Amino acid sequence: MSVLQRFEKRLEGLVEGAFAKVFKGVVHPVEILNAMQREAEAHKAILAGGRTLVPNRYVIDLSPYDHSRLAPYAAALAQELAQSQAEFIGEQAWTVYGDVIVEVERGEGLDTGMFRVTAEVYTGGEVAPVSSPGGYDPGPPAYPAYDQGGGYGPPPGHGGGARNVRLVSGDGRTYPLQMGSTVIGRGDQANLRLPDVGISRRHARLDFDGGQVVLTDLGSTNGTMVNGQRVSAVALNPGDMIQLGTTTLTFRVDG
């Protein structure tokens, strides 16, 4: 089931079908999500290491008439749009800063049934352009939280210190993870080198922002598995089993 199909299915059961009545004959939520996906595609920026940064904040301007009709459901719609956009970005293995944010606003001058989407990279304190010359790379990125509010430590800038996260191999070896990015592989450029011929030289990357760890496959020959499922990019949960080649690593969080 595609992101759009999942989004439509969730909308069907939301506030007892009120969305169908609200949007009948005017702008439809699926059209908004389609536009958000196009904005992400249009504003891609290549970061160091070949990662692709896309906007994480989307402002939806609706016509005054549509906005007044939608007002009771704006918060619920924004949450559903944010979740679906995070799923879409995750499926593309793109990078964002923090959570995906969607805001529904009143757009003066727009005719009924019309809407406008503005996309930008939002780092928490300021808006960063994604089309600056040479690309934009303000530091180690976070990824969308697929559980919408999960994580296992305080988010960056909120104090309390990051928890102790580590990988444990089947033979009991422990590999602590530091803040930032850790490349796993068997080549000289890997931060965590594993003597497994089934692992690529640069096989996968772990990004730890203090709040969560995201595992990204780096186009490896044999792929990366988490709990038996092949993944391109996924936020890890304590106890997850990662398999690279013939090596199995368990993700652990202490404290």
TrEMBL record:
The keyword Phosphoprotein applies. Keywords: Phosphoprotein. Residues 182-231 form the FHA domain. InterPro entries: Cell_Proc_Reg/RNA_Proc, FHA_dom, FhaA_N, FhaA_N_sf, SMAD_FHA_dom_sf. It comes from the Bacteria. CDD domains: FHA. This is FHA domain-containing protein. It comes from Micromonospora matsumotoense. The lineage of its organism: Bacteria, Bacillati, Actinomycetota, Actinomycetes, Micromonosporales.
